[in-house]
Amino acid sequence: MRPAEAMDRAFELAELGPKHGPNPRVGCVILDPAGRLVGEGYHRGAGTPHAEAAALTHARQLGLSPAGATAYTTLEPCNHVGRTAPCSRALVEAGLARVVFALTDPNPAASGGAHYLASHGVELEGDVDARRGIVLNRAWVHAFATGRPYVTLKLASTMDGRLAAPDGSSQWITGPEARAHAHLRRSEADAILVGTGTFLADRPRLTARREDGSLYEHQPLRVVAGEREIGDAGYLQIPGHCPSHVLRVLADREVRHVLLEGGPTLAAAFARAALIDEVHLYMAPALLGGGAPSVGSLGIESVDQALRWRTRNVERVGNDVFVEVGR
Prior knowledge:
The protein is an alpha/beta fold. The chain is built from ten helices and 13 strands. The protein has helices spanning 3-14, 51-62, 87-93, 113-119, 130-136, 138-146, 176-186, 196-202, 243-252, 264-272, and strands at residues 27-31, 37-42, 70-73, 98-101, 123-125, 150-158, 191-195, 221-225, 236-238, 257-260, 278-284, 310-317, 320-326. It has an eight-stranded mixed β-sheet with strand order 9-8-7-10-6-11-13-12, with helices on both faces. Strand 12 and strand 13 (320-326) form a beta hairpin. Helix 3 (87-93) runs parallel beside helix 4. The mean pLDDT is 94.
């Protein structure tokens, strides 16, 4: 296996890890000097062995020695003691000769692995594919860069941007395939956020459900922002209307990725505060010509003041269109 193939395989493994949770997705491949596989692994979620430790365990299971080998990993090996031991020390103790990593760890509590490895004679090559490393863990990297969760605004609307008809009816603007797609995205988020207005009007469950109605294994934290009493202990209510305050509270809970599903008022508040990092739009091939807009007033008077993002993905989902845009 060539070095580039090893790193590609490490990224494939990393993508098997959960998108939700406080920890990054990481994959690791270990090759001997001849390019033969010694072991591989990935991080399966909080409290489980990190990718490098999993790869070393795999090597032991195969009866192979990692001494003198090279580890290819998607993130700088950690150097802190949490629920698991530091990966940097495990690699040194196993006798690795070289470590190649795609991205330097942005978490100050876990970084320093490269320094530890170098100080113990391990050859290093870092930031070899930093962009791909950031994309792999976009929300997680963003959380450490900004000190707040990554915010995805989810919209479901007609082609003219309406989320409800003039009589208030809104079910269903999009088809079952789009709704199933949206629920899968819910299962990948750390929290779902709506305002008290949406909650009291619709009483949404804010759960991630399969097409048969069963729940996904991971359920995001259900959050309602606002002052009005919601009368339900199954949700986290954050008083107030300040988006920055809401995100600070969620950051303290180690929430890295928030899915914003509130109505037009909450969407507009986050947009005005420049706190929307990406938008997931499910657009139905339908026109209403009136009714509630998907986003409230932003105080914009001219096209050149429009909030703009870059298109990342466009795909057909059933009879609807899914558009993903981001910074």
